[in-house]
Amino acid sequence: MNMVAEHPTEHERNQTIKHGERVELFHDRITQVLDNSTCCLQSGRCAQRAVSCLVAPSVDDLVIVISIDDSLFITDIAARKSDATICISPQKGGLTIKAEELTLVGERMCRLQSGGDLELSAPAGSLKVVANSIMQSLSGAFVVISKLFLSKSDVINLEANQTMVSKSKQHFISATEDIHMDAQRINMG
To answer: For residue 46, which phi and psi values (nearest 5 degrees)?
Structure first.
């Protein structure tokens, strides 16, 4: 169903829908974004983003505005002139997306970013990472705690600038060809 909002007639403006509130629906263009919730419109009025308008507005956006009594609310962004990235940003608080299944797809790139902590949690399931290559860069500790740790590769190169410790109740080192140990001192036992 296509709905085109035109400026309302006098009869439509005076219709009462709930407890005496007069409602008017119209379109306007944003001329200035004052903060995360207030925008100036081409008509000279200012409007607040409705809670349901999650896309952060930009200058020159064509928006749908609802007027309830003396308050104006931007309910939707109908069109944007630029190809700028769309930002989903609630006015206050957090944002939770909940679904039986959720997929985020970036055709060129997908980025998860946090100014603080980032937590991935699947306590009743598994976490799978599939990639051509993985680069990890840490300024602090890298801790893995698990019941079983398996790693398989054609070549493994472990390098430490200071000390490397390998400890276990039983320790097996086996090679099908050579074991080479090279140091200034080798202490055994």
So the answer is: -110, 145
Cα–Cα separations (whole angstroms), residue 116 to 91, 113, 119, 128: 20, 9, 10, 23
Residue 47 in contact with residue 74, Cβ under 8 Å? Answer: yes
CB 48 within 8 A of CB 72: yes
CATH at residue 32: 2.40.50.140
Distances (CA, A) of 89 to 8, 15, 94: 30, 33, 9
Q: Is residue 17 part of a domain?
A: yes
Number of domains in the chain: 1
In a domain, 108, yes or no: no
- pLDDT band at 40; cut points 50, 70, 90: very high
Please tell me the distance from the alpha carbon of residue 82 to that of residue 61, in angstroms, as a whole number. Answer: 9
pLDDT in tens, 125-166: 998 999 999 999 989 998 999 999 899 999 999 899 999 998
Question: Whole domain around residue 28: which residue ranges?
Answer: 10-79
| Residue 39 within a domain | yes
